[in-house]
Specification:
T-fold; 20 strands; alpha+beta; 8 helices; about 30% strand; about 30% helix
Length: about 300
């Protein structure tokens, strides 16, 4: 039997079959669910510990994390996770032509505030803000940051954590597992996925099965201030919230950190550039545009089985 997931940008629910053990905790600001065979139950606790370590490394909310220290003090010592995440982020920056940009933290963390103590950035504040990645310098031991920017790894952090847990489970010969952090899912073996429909919560957009692959969803319909006009998906080139897409779901065997970053970047690109970019990668996609048009990549059968459009 397959495990069943409701895929959204805020939470994931899982009804595992009778041979699976599932545990769910709140980590990295979301619900994290990990499922393994009963015989592999011993790997659940260390898997959650890995996610805690990733969070302690990449978080902008934990004051002692290397990234928080970097934002606060303009200098920080790096651990292996923060160094790897920064290195990957610069690679994604180049691959996405600057649409994935971790130097956007001043906008996403200061000028805008989502959740508690909500705040909408003022136009003149945005115009004065900097998103220059050239303000960041680092090596494997330490990082330095100019005064004009802050770092925000939220666009790839959950995918990065899913990768680290999956790597651990595979190293321990686990053959069937699911690691799910909000819209980022990593599947070892086979999983059944249902992509949430923001326009009709009673019926998913599509359902399908994946094998040893990842799924990442980015959407503007859950995290916003007052209306989706002020959502958390900020285009680093215009410094404004993007509304061209309601949701973008990517499916591939590529690492989940990569899928997470690509979904983030694709959500803020111009429409033609989004499709050109995704079509150039080894990725299947399910996209719900702002005009409510559902677009499914022609290659989706390469990445899924039993694909059903609802």
């Amino acid at each position: 039997m397959y495990k069943f997931f409701l895929l959204v940008s805020v939470f994931v629910t899982c009804n595992a079959d009778s041979q699976m053990i599932q545990r769910t905790k709140v980590l990295m600001g979301t619900f994290v669910s990990i499922s393994v065979d009963k015989e592999d139950k011993k790997f659940l606790k260390p898997s959650f510990e890995i996610i805690k370590r990733v969070d302690n490394s990449l978080s902008t909310y934990k004051k002692n994390s290397p990234i928080s220290q970097l934002n606060q003090n303009r200098h920080a010592s790096l651990d292996k996770y923060s160094y790897e995440a920064l290195t990957l982020s610069l690679k994604y920056y180049k691959q996405t032509h600057g649409y994935f940009n971790i130097a956007i933290g001043t906008i996403t963390k200061d000028l805008y505030r989502f959740g508690a103590k909500e705040r909408i950035a003022l136009k003149n504040e945005l115009e004065k803000s900097s998103v220059s990645v050239n303000e960041l310098r680092f090596d494997k031991d330490e990082a330095f940051l100019g005064n004009a920017v802050k770092i925000d790894l939220g666009g790839m952090g959950k995918g990065f954590a899913a990768d680290k847990v999956s790597e651990f489970l595979l190293q321990n010969k686990v053959k069937k597992a699911v690691v799910a952090l909000s819209g980022d899912i990593r599947c070892i073996g086979s999983c059944k996925i249902a992509v949430n429909n923001p326009l009709d919560v009673t019926h998913p957009l599509v359902t399908f099965i994946i094998h040893n692959s990842g799924v990442s969803t980015s959407g503007n319909y859950n995290r916003y201030i007052k209306s989706t006009k002020y959502n958390h998906l900020i285009n680093p080139k215009t410094k404004e919230s993007e509304q061209k897409f309601i949701s973008i779901t990517l499916v591939s065997k590529l690492p989940s950190a990569t899928l997470d970053a690509y979904a983030t970047a694709a959500s803020v690109m111009p429409i033609k550039e989004t499709y050109a970019f995704l079509d150039s990668k080894k990725i299947g996609y399910i996209i719900l545009q702002a005009d409510k048009k559902l677009v499914i990549s022609k290659n989706i059968a390469e990445y899924t089985d039993m694909f059903i459009k609802n």
